[in-house]
Task: inverse folding
């Protein structure tokens, strides 16, 4: 089912679909979580072997059904190739007098990309997912336990990645491969030997030295050691002035990329002005 929703989160819509279809919540699947405060479209799969549903049975005020079709496979988390974004920045007062600077920054982003941080939303309201991670680690409740803690484990893993990326940015080596790298990457921590070698291995070990209890917990929760690129290049980045204080941005991101980190690089242009206010 292709669903369009406004101001509704993915989990809520999945729950509604299970109720309307009369199936278990676990029989409703999707590839990823979409922003709540936006107009978004995404695909859901409903496990209905040998059953047909009347589309009218699934009507609800909280979403719109764009398309329905049979498929022989369920959707799984992370299997989507990417996402498309159309964003409008409103009340952007700097546009009128500083558009040339903004456009230069956007051209650089389109050409060279941005740091591939995990966005703040990964960590929950006020970083709450990280607080929960620390509590569970202190209680040794993550060892061999991934059920019900998937979001917490992901947040902890993402935090360690961001720490390494931040240090590579500080050292100005985040966008070019170091020794033994085919592309610049940072660890998604888990069990197994790290793919980093040489100076990069020493760099990562030094950054994560104070986080060994987190590394240990991720290893013993059954996660495997992986790598994630430190550079995120928006696909087909285009921009247009809609008014003297409105800017439209359109671009695509590969799965796991955050639109907020693209916007962050525009905000960085005005950080000195913001801090002075």
Result:
């Amino acid at each position: 089912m292709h669903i369009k929703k406004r101001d509704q989160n993915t989990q809520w819509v999945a729950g509604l679909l299970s109720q309307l279809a009369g199936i278990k919540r676990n029989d409703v699947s999707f590839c990823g979580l979409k922003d709540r405060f936006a107009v978004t479209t995404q695909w859901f799969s409903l496990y209905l072997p040998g059953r047909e549903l009347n589309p009218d049975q699934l009507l609800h005020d909280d979403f719109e059904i764009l398309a329905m079709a049979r498929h022989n496979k369920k959707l799984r988390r992370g299997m989507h190739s990417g996402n498309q974004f159309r964003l409008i920045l409103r009340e952007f007062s700097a546009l009128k007098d500083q558009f040339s600077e903004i456009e230069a920054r956007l051209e650089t982003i389109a050409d060279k990309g941005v740091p591939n941080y995990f966005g703040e939303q990964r960590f929950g309201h006020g970083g709450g997912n990280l607080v929960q991670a620390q509590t569970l680690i202190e209680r040794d409740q993550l060892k061999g336990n991934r059920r019900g803690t998937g979001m917490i484990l992901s947040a902890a893993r993402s935090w360690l990645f961001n720490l390494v990326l931040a240090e590579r940015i500080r050292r100005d080596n985040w966008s070019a491969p170091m020794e033994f790298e085919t592309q610049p990457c940072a660890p998604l921590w888990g069990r197994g030997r790290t793919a980093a070698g040489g100076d990069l291995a020493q760099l990562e070990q030094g950054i994560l030295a104070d986080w060994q209890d987190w590394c240990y917990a991720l290893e013993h929760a059954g996660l495997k050691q992986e790598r994630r690129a430190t550079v995120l290049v928006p696909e087909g980045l285009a921009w247009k002035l809609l008014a003297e204080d409105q800017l439209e941005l359109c671009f695509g991101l590969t799965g796991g990329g955050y639109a907020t980190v693209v916007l962050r690089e525009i905000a960085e242009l005005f950080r000195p002005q913001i801090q002075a206010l």
Observations:
- The CA atoms of residues 133 and 152 lie 6 Å apart.
